[in-house]
Structure formats: structure tokens, C-alpha cells
Amino acid sequence: MSKLEAFVLVAEEESFSAAADRVGTAQSTISSRIKELETLLGQRLFLRSTRRVSLSPVGAAVLPAARTALASLDAVHQVIDDMAGIRHGRIRFGVIAGAAIPRLGKILADFASDFPNIDLVITSQASDALERAVADGSLDIALVVRFGTAYLRWERLLHDSLIVVDDSPRQNGMSATPFSSLHEARLIILDGGVGVRQALEAEARRVGISLSIAAQVATPAIAEELHARGLGWLIVPSSFAQGRGATLVDEHGIELNVDVGLVTRPDFHAPAAELLVTRLIEGIEGH
Q1: pLDDT-based confidence at 49, cuts 50/70/90?
Q2: Taking 60 as the threshold, does the pLDDT of residue 85 lie above it?
């Protein structure tokens, strides 16, 4: 294990013991690598107490560069191995929490089976948190739901229709809810960076109505609980709707939607990661 790898592990886990457990090594190894790096740099990277470990100001400043350096080194190794016909390494993949993306589980399972030497590390977070993680180098690829343009490299896979869940007798049996009906309702929006609010407000401006947004939350479970307690109608992308509700449409019956796609850094070109991107595009976009 390198000094930089130990530094990033401790920074992410905020614990020497947790960092050691994560990679299956001794805590003394982690501590030794951190001490060597601090000696080399002539700076303390962590503030230690009996209760927690936190980054020092210098450590916080160094962390993004350390992640970039490790990602670059991984890319170099993967290019060399790829040229030799060997595919191994590590891919840090993020997927939006709570979403049911068609065939995703099968694609990832097949990929892991086909390339057992590639360590696939999967993280689930809100969409905006995933995009930030890709931007700062702590994730290689993320599958997100969003509206509008992306500042990262973006590959749209499919449209995700917006669904209105109000559980009323009026909605039972309906396949669509007209957008104009929203001006009468209090709304709970599952967003977390997926762009639902942007999509709704753009359409509201177009047709000249106002919306009453009672809550905007990033966590599906909280959104469901607020809806169950009668706070308002729930508006979610279809991948979160669990088969309920009616599709939101404009006055012409055209569905309102956000997009499902992949984000990566424009400068990131690791062969193993590109291989996974190709599998995801073929498996989800072609579904």
C-alpha cells in the first residue's frame, strides 16, 4: 500500500482502524504510511484526538490532489495492462440511491463475473452528491438522474418520466395527470439534484402557472413518509415510483421527464472504466 492510498483511506473513513479494516491490513501499516508521508511533506495531515481523526487544514488542501494522483496512476496501470491483454484494477462506480434502473443489477453482476480481476466498488448517494464525487475524483463513473446540461462528460441513456402519486380515487386507473392540475396541489418533490424541480419550474413558467412546493427532499424514504402523512402529492422520476401513480403530461399529452445517464470526468480515460461504460450503455440504452 502506498502512502497516498493510506492517506485517502483514512481521510474517507475518518479512522485509522476503519481504514485498515476496509483494505484488510494492519492498523500499524496504515499508521506507518501516514507517518512516512507527514515526514516527507513536513506537515501534519490529520488532527488526532481520543474520539476522532480529522483532516488538518493542510490535509484538506492535499486530498483532492492525492485522489487525482491515485486516479492517474490507476489509469497508467490499466492502460499498460490493457495493452498486454490483461484487464484488472479498480473502478469506483456510483449509482443514485433508491432508483430502480432497468437491468442495472444484471449488467454489474455480469461485468464482475466476466472480469474477476477488476475490483468494482459501488457507492449509492443522491444524484448531486454523485456528480460532486466524480468531479473531485473520488468516483470514476456515476449513474445519475438529472435535468438539463452537465458540466461533466455526459452520456444520456434514457428518459425518466415524471410521475405524480396522490393515491386518490380520481387518480386510480388514470395513466396521465395533466400538468395544469398541479396548481391546485401542495407538492412533495424527490430531487437531490435529479432536476425534478428544474423540470417542473421550467414547464410552470412556460404555461404561466405557479406551483406550491411543500417539501423538496433528497431521500426517497423521507419523501414517501411525508406523502403518507398527507403533506401533499408526491412527484418522482418513474424509476423511483415503484409502479404507482400517473405520468405527468403537458397540454398536448407529451410526457415531462428528466434523463438517466452516466457522468465521468472529461480527462478520465481508464480502459477498465471505459469498458464498464460501454456495458452500461449497451445494457440500459438498448433496453
Answers
A1: confident
A2: no
CB count within 10 Å of CB 178 equals: 14
| Residue 2: all three cell numbers together | 502506498
In the chain, how long is the greatest CA-to-CA distance? 69
SS3 235: strand
d(CA 94, CA 134): 9
- Contact (Cβ atoms closer than 8 angstroms) between residue 101 and residue 147: no
The string of pLDDT tens digits covering residues 161-177 is: 999 998 665 555 567 89
Spatial CB neighbours of 32, under 8 Å, sequence gap ≥ 6: none
Cell of 105: 443489477
Alpha carbons 60 and 54: distance in angstroms, whole number: 9
Question: Three-state SS for 163?
Answer: strand
Lowest mean pLDDT among 130-144, 156-170, 194-208: 156-170
Higher-confidence residue of 74 and 174: namely: 74
Task: State if pTM tops 0.85.
Answer: no
Contacts of 68 (CB under 8 A, 6+ apart): 137
Q: Which residues sit opposite 93 in a β-bridge?
A: 122, 141
Q: Using CA atoms, how far apart are residues 162 and 165, in angstroms rounded to an integer?
A: 10
**Exposed (0-12), middle (13-18) or buried (19+): which is 39, by Cβ within 10 Å?**
exposed
- CB neighbour list of residue 149: distance below 8 Å, 6 or more residues apart: none
Residues 6+ apart with CB under 8 A from 203: 179, 250, 256
Residue written as grid cell 423511483: 240
**For 1-15, what is each residue's pLDDT tens digit?**
789 999 999 999 889
Q: Are strands 153-165 and 257-264 parallel, antiparallel or unpaired?
A: antiparallel
Residue 79 pLDDT > 80: no
